[in-house]
């Protein structure tokens, strides 16, 4: 307010200056004008400098960050992590390696002697400290996880220069169905732009790697035929997440067709287990039940059951390894197609849908705490009422055969959860 009164002292237009204005007063007015103009410009500068931060969230929440990579020591780490330790082993680039599925797949590949290099941007879609803990786990088994974005073409090219990867296991993505309404561009950034960037680098690599990547059961969308079979229609996505995964399947077709890249898409069905994702129901139900907080359980129209074909992580890992083992080589070289290449898509589910109310009952028994249940109508914002995989195709071609039921798998999850969050680690937030 004091400033305003000062500003009021300045004549609004120069024309109002009187020619016979007292000399020293005139000079002090110019000085005042200059001073307050400077303050004003400064305020404008501060305003424009600060406003984009709040009004324009970074799509990946991290994409503007530059990561440091490169140099002889870094290259040595990359090479050593990707080194194959068995005859006819693979060297695999695993994107999303600090993620739930990525961590398990990387560890399993490393265990059997394949070379593995991880890549992850450690974004904060969910608690990054969990990603860091998974990274530490991988480091202990000899897997280096490079911090970087799949949209960084220079980084990807460098990685392929250092290591002639035979395979890419592409698991980096923006996951989650409901978050798409909050941050739609993060889905475009990672699931579409990032995927295209990765394929561009793969098609130019020499040799071209074979690529196995994660699509999703969500591509079945509003499809009502059960169990879901790969031949069913997938042109009615119920969420932007599903739409970007479906787009990925079409983009995969294009790169296979034009450049001879060998591509296998895996439609995962609700994967759960130790080191899982805090944004998924089984995980936050566990957290809230233990806290004594009420949980929301959705029901369909006419009190219809909401059910999921929950698939245990170890079964998914076997499916991923089966897909890598049966992937044929890409046929192109130097960015040119030399012949037809393999293009596949498989359901990886458990073939036994379980109502979400049963999931809660199992958790109550395992945690020895009664849940406060809040029954709510399933909102129409992306979640479908029912998923059920027909896995006969993966069974036939990948030797995929899930063996863990929900009861057994959740027991392992609960044991991990209690150890991780009560064993000195900070509470899940
Ligand atoms: N878990 C499930 O139930 C499920 C179901 C269907 C499909 N999927 C798919 O499986 C894959 C793995 O899922 P998850 O459950 O392990 O998820 P996750 O979020 O735990 O793992 C994904 C990882 O990718 C990283 N990432 C995201 N965008 C990136 C980018 N632009 N550059 C580099 N890294 C990036 C994240 O930091 C994260 O660590 C995803 O493609 C997901 O869409 C998962
Ligand atoms: C599952 O899919 C296969 C084709 O892969 C089909 O022959 C079979 O009938 C399907 N099973 C069911 C129960 O729909």
UniProtKB/TrEMBL annotation:
Q: Which reaction does it catalyse?
A: UDP-alpha-D-glucuronate = UDP-alpha-D-galacturonate
What keywords are assigned to this protein?
Answer: Carbohydrate metabolism, Golgi apparatus, Isomerase, Membrane, NAD, Transmembrane, Transmembrane helix
Asked whether the UniProt record includes Flavoprotein among its keywords, one would answer: no
Drop me one GO molecular function for this one: UDP-glucuronate 4-epimerase activity
Gene3D superfamilies reported in the protein's UniProt record: NAD(P)-binding Rossmann-like Domain
| Residues that span the membrane, as ranges | 30-49
Q: What is its EC number?
A: 5.1.3.6
Compartment(s) where it occurs, according to its Swiss-Prot or TrEMBL record: Golgi apparatus, Golgi stack membrane
What's the protein's topology in the membrane?
Multi-pass membrane protein
User: Which top class of enzyme applies to this chain?
Assistant: isomerase
Q: Which Pfam families does this UniProt record tie to the protein?
A: Epimerase
Q: Which residues form the NAD-dependent epimerase/dehydratase domain?
A: 92-329
One GO cellular-component annotation of the UniProt record comes to:
Golgi cisterna membrane
Q: Which family does it belong to?
A: Belongs to the NAD(P)-dependent epimerase/dehydratase family.
* Subunit-structure text: Homodimer.
What protein is this chain from?
UDP-glucuronate 4-epimerase
To which species is this protein native?
Answer: Arabidopsis lyrata subsp. lyrata
Q: Which gene encodes it?
A: GAE2
């Amino acid at each position: 307010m004091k400033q305003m009164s000062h500003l009021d002292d300045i004549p609004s237009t120069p024309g109002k200056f009187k020619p016979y204005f007292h000399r020293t007063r005139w000079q002090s007015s110019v000085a005042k004008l200059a001073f307050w103009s400077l303050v004003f410009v400064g305020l404008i500068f501060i305003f424009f400098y600060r406003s984009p931060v709040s009004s324009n969230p970074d799509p990946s929440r991290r994409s503007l960050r530059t990561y440091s990579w490169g140099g002889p020591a870094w290259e040595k780490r990359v090479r050593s992590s990707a080194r194959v330790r068995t005859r006819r082993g693979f060297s695999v680039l695993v994107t999303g390696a600090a993620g739930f599925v990525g961590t398990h797949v990387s560890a399993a590949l490393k265990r059997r002697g394949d070379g593995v290099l991880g890549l992850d941007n450690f974004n904060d879609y969910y608690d990054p400290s969990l990603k860091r803990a998974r990274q530490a786990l991988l480091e202990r088994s000899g897997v280096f996880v490079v911090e970087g974005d799949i949209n960084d073409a220079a980084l990807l090219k460098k990685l392929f220069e250092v290591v002639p990867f035979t395979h890419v296991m592409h698991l980096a993505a923006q996951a989650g169905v409901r978050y798409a309404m909050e941050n739609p561009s993060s889905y475009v950034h990672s699931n579409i732009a990032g995927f295209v960037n990765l394929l561009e680098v793969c098609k130019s690599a020499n040799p071209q790697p074979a690529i196995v990547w994660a699509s999703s059961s969500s591509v079945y969308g509003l499809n009502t035929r059960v169990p879901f079979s790969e031949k069913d229609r997938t042109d009615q996505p119920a969420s932007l997440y599903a739409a970007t995964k479906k787009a990925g399947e079409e983009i995969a077709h294009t790169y296979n067709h034009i450049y001879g890249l060998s591509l296998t898409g895996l439609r995962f069905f609700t994967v759960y287990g130790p080191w899982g994702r805090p944004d998924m129901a089984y995980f936050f139900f566990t957290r809230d039940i233990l806290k004594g907080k009420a949980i929301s359980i959705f029901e369909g129209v006419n009190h219809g059951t909401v059910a999921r074909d929950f698939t245990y992580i170890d079964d998914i890992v076997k499916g991923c390894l089966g897909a890598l083992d049966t992937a044929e080589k890409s046929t192109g070289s130097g960015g040119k197609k030399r012949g037809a290449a393999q293009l596949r898509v498989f359901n990886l589910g458990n073939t036994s849908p379980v109502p979400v109310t049963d999931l809660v009952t199992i958790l109550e028994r395992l945690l020895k705490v009664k849940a406060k249940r809040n029954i709510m109508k399933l909102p129409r914002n992306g979640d479908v009422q029912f998923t059920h995989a027909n896995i006969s195709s993966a069974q036939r071609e990948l030797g995929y055969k899930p063996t863990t039921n929900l009861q057994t798998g959740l027991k392992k999850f609960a044991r991990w959860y209690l150890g991780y969050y009560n064993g000195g680690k900070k509470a899940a937030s």
